[in-house]
Amino acid sequence: MDPSVAVALGLLLCISCLLFILSWRKGFGRGKLPPGPVPLPIIGNILQVDLKNIPQSLCKLGKQYGPVFTLQFGVERVVVLHGYKAVKEALIDHGDKFADRGHMPLLEFVSNGLGLIISNGERWKQIRRFSLMTLRNFGMGKRSIEERVQEVSKYLVEELKKTKGLPCDPTFILGCAPCNVICSIIFQKCFEYKDQKFLYLMKLLDENVKIVSSPWLKVYNSFPSLVHHLPGSHHKAIKNYHLQCEFILEEVKEHQRTLDPSNPRDFIDCFLMKMEQEKQQPQSEFTIESLVCTAIDLFSAGTETTSTTLKYGLLLLLKYPEIAGKLHKEIDHVIGRDRSPCMEDRNKMPYTNAVIHEIQRYIDLVPTNLPHAVSEDIQFRQYLIPKGTTIIPLLSSVLYDDEEFPNPDQFDPGHFLDESGNFKKSDYFMPFSSGKRICAGESLARMELFLFFTTILQNFTLKSPIDSKDINTTPIASGFIKVPPSYELCFLPSYNM
C-alpha cells in the first residue's frame, strides 16, 4: 500500500474513533439512555443486525433488552420502540415530542430537507397542513375521488383482459393504477399505460424503491460522509431522484403558463397560487423547489406502497385459494357482476374487509416505520432521551403481536373477525404508522385497496402457473419496505368461474 494512503487511512480511523467516543460520551452526559448491546468503535452495533432482515433482528433484540432499547449505527444513536404499548406511548401519548423526522442522510441529500417526508419543524407543519387541505379539496375521502378510483379500476380491468388469461407478471400493471390516481390529483391527468413519459416515471419509482430497501442503504445511512464517495447503488438513486425532479418541473412550468387562479385544476395549481400569496414573505416555505419535492413525496408514498400491497395481496390469494374463493362468494352476493364496487359496499363485506386488513398486517410493508426523532430532551419511562435522538417505532412488533393476533406468522383473516363473522377493529393495526406523522394519504390508500381488490376479483379468477403449495411469499428485501418476490399469474375472466 502506498505510504500516503496508509497514513490517510490511519488518520481517518483515529478521527472516526474520536468522533465516536465524543458522541457516545455526549449522549451519556445528557441522559440515561435505554439499555442495549455494547457497540464497537466506529461501526457501532451494525454487525449485530442482519442487514438483509433488519426488522427480524430488531424484534430479537427487543425480546432480549425490553420494549425500549438503544443501538449505535456508526456515530448515530438510535432508540428502538418494541411493542404496541411503547409505540403508542411515544407516537400518540407524547406525539408532539416524537413528531420530528429522524436522520435519513440519502433523502436529506437529494431533497435538501424539503417536502413532506424529510422536513421538520414549522416547514413540515406548513407543508403537511397545506397538502392535507388540498388533497381533501380535491376529493380525498369524498365521492369525487371515489369516482376517479372507480374509473382507474375499470381501465385496470381492460388492461388485465389484454393478457388473455396467459401467465403474466402483474408488477407493472398494478403499479400503473395507483400512480394514475396520484397523477390525476397532482397533474389532473391520467396516462395511457403505453405512454413513454408514464413508463419512464414508473421505472424511476420502481428502481428507487428497490435501492432504498436494500442492505446497502443502511450502510450508506450509517456512514454517509464516507460511503457517499464510494461506488454503490446510492448514486443510481440520487440520479433517479434528479430525473424525477426534471419530470415534475416540466409539469410545473406547463402549469405556470396555463394557470387560471379562478379555477385551480390540481395540486400543482393550488401550490402555485399559495406561492403567489406568499411572494412577499422572504422566508416562505412555498417555493418551486418545495413544490417539486412535495410532489415527488406524494408520488413515492402514494404509488409504490399501494401497488406493492396489491402485488403482495394477489400473491397471498394465489397461495391460499380457499380464501380467494370466499372473497368471490361475498363479492357475488353483495355486489354481483352488473355494477362497479363502491365504498358503501365495504360495511356489508366483513370478510373482504378482514382479508384486506390481514394482507396489510401480514406483509408488514414498512416494518421499521420511517425514523422519528425527539424534538427536545424527554423523560420517557425511566429514561432521559436527548433532543435529536433518532427513534425507530418498530411496526413489526405491533402487527405481529401474538396476544392481539394469535399465530401472527399465519395468514388468517380471522384476526379481524369476531365469533359471529363480523369485522373486528384493532388498535394494533398500524400499517400507516400512528400519531402526528401518520401517512397523509391513509384514507385514499384504504379506498384504493378496497376498490382495486374487489374490482379485480369481481372480473377475474386468479390462477397460478405453479401449485399453490410451491408458492413462496418470503420478501426478497426487508429494508425500507418489504419487496415481494417476482411471480406470474393468470387473470381468467370471471365467466370461466
From TrEMBL:
GO cellular component, one term: endoplasmic reticulum membrane
Transmembrane segments: 6-24
Predominant place of localization: endoplasmic reticulum
Residues the record lists as binding heme: 439
EC assignment: 1.14.14.1
Record key words, sorted: Endoplasmic reticulum, Heme, Iron, Membrane, Metal-binding, Microsome, Monooxygenase, Oxidoreductase, Transmembrane, Transmembrane helix
Cellular compartments annotated: Endoplasmic reticulum membrane; Microsome membrane
Keyword Membrane: yes
Pfam families: p450 (PF00067)
Single annotated GO MF: oxidoreductase activity, acting on paired donors, with incorporation or reduction of molecular oxygen, reduced flavin or flavoprotein as one donor, and incorporation of one atom of oxygen
The keyword Iron is annotated on this UniProt entry: yes
Protein name: Cytochrome P450
Species of origin: Phascolarctos cinereus (Koala)
Gene label: LOC110192774
